[in-house]
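Final paragraph of the annual report: two paired records, presented back to back.
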Amino acid sequence: MKTAVVTDSTAYIPKELREKLNIYMIPLSVIFGNETYREEIDISASAFYEEVKVKELPTTSQPPVGQFVSLFEQLANEYDAVISIHLSSGISGTYQGSVTAGNMVEGIDVYSFDSEISCMVQGFYVLEAAEMSAAGKSPQEIMEKLKEMKTSIRAYFMADDLSHLQRGGRLSSAQALIGSLLQVKPLLHFENKVIVPFEKIRTRKKAMKRIVEMLGEDVKNGEPYRAAIIHANREEEAYEWKAELEAQFPNVEFMISYFGPVIGTHLGEGSMGLGWVKR
């Protein structure tokens, strides 16, 4: 049985890696006024962060169901099944779009998976599915493995500027004002599919240190882990952090990723995150 792997652009898996592993991608979009840009296709993360310095904060939109239908119909010519992995259904209707399209398309079995998270941590599921598909595993085996991964996946991120979360409707004005006055760097995470505060920490340095403490707790048994450092236009800082973490945690394989346009719209430039999963 031949199984295709589909995800959306918010997994931020580089194009070369998608092509190498045969991963198909459906883009979400950012909208500046009357101009719509499909992320990872029409606009890169670096170009996006330049745009928001001179323009109003954009809005974001999920892919139309028709785009899923078109892709699934195309895949039906070559594949028997699709594993379609998407960002949390608590912050976007993208997963539901995949489910709806899967029920509309004939000739291929569509297995939609709600990652309940986003960015490269969502990408961990995608990479695993692609590797398993290449090894000839069945869709049922892949879905079982993805469910099992949910038990060890963790991700924490720090918003450098609370105004983006507030303007995007992800945080109340009062919370944003208090945070700014106290210079609080809230640690955020996904809980029950939505972004919620995990802890309030006074400085950026302490917030990042706290994330490292939690990683250390999870990986102290020496088992192999995969982790992603995720940055919003702070590549140099991300590479410095990676060097420190690699020296500290030899059993963890670290990679660098980024908050692209859609997620960057809500978190803002300067945000940093770290996610990990047991190998």
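The closing record of the year follows.
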Amino acid sequence: MSRAASTAPQSQQSTRSPAASILHQPTAVWAVAFACVIAFMGIGLVDPILPAITRDLEATPTETEMLFTSYLVVTGVAMFFTSWISSRIGAKRTLLIGLALIVAFALASGMSQSVEAVIGFRAGWGLGNALFISTALATIVGAASGGTSSAIILYEAALGLGIAIGPLIGGLLGSLSWRGPFFGSASLMAVGFAAIVVMLKTDAPAPVPIRLSAPFRALARPALGVLAAAAFFYNIGFFVLLAYTPFALVPLGLGSAITLGLVFFGWGVSLAVTSVWVAPLLTRRMKRTHVLAAVLPLLALDLVAAALVSGSAAGLVVCVIVGGLLLGVLNTVLTECVMEATDLMRAVASSAYSGVRFLGGALAPPAATLLAAAFGPAAPFFAAAAAVLVAVAILLLGRAQLHRANGVVDRLEEAEAIGAGDS
């Protein structure tokens, strides 16, 4: 297929309503989406048990937050290489290796006797997560019916559902022991592994090998570079809200695993709802970049509000839920922009963008607890709001590079695509 031929349908499909097609997917897509739900549970799974791990393993809050950092750093760095790996061994094998690593390291985390061991095993979990997540996004986009937008909405719905269920299961199992959520996650991942084995056919035709340098070279593309840089700072806000807020709630009387699990279950449900229904509604009426420019400042305001009410349990919970609503829109629209902003292979674009994005998130949890210790519980939320505003500034300064992310392909680019022939 020529690039011109592939570009035009993508732009048309991006504006199509997903309602009619999102539920009518091949079984392989549902298998990957189910495994995505379980994989994304790993992000929020530890939220309700952070105070318990701190207490039982005699760790400081900053040491405990390293459970997020080790996981996200390894995930981010490994993301740059996942497209190279999957293009040589195939998407199915890459997904299965990723799932197997998650099962192994989740079990090891649950059997750990020190916070240092949990931090190390979470790093291994992050490697499996990187192999799975980056490949899963490209697999769903490539195999789903209804176009890119429908596929991304399905992926983001899996993300939202996983993030919602993760804290709930973490809270329920964590009320028995902080080890329970790790064993539960390993068991569910084993089910996801079996679903991929049975339902996802072997890659056909054989994948075209991708250069090891491809994701790094991809970031030199102005559009992808702008979006990745913005996502780096956006993810700081995301993970301050997710990873630091449990510690802010503990002194306010909301420190039990089940209570924190319910709070962040509400956050994740809010994220899933806006990912699936609100984001498509907005992008049908506004350009994607306009949606980002409108919603990112609202997230910054929500984080400022969290700082101002950091002494109120009810106020913080409301800010967490509102944050989930905003994050659902932003996750979906940013991912759509990345998938449409260039003519790069989707696996390459996903690897490059996701690598930068997760590295941004890795900085936030320990930095937040250090700021809280030095300047008080409101400081991390103010810092997160500032980071989100940096993301807004990057998008505004780079808006000239993002026409294609809005489904606009100029005539020169279209002519070059026609002249390039088969991709």
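The mean pLDDT is 85. This concludes the annual technical report; the extension proposal builds directly on these records.
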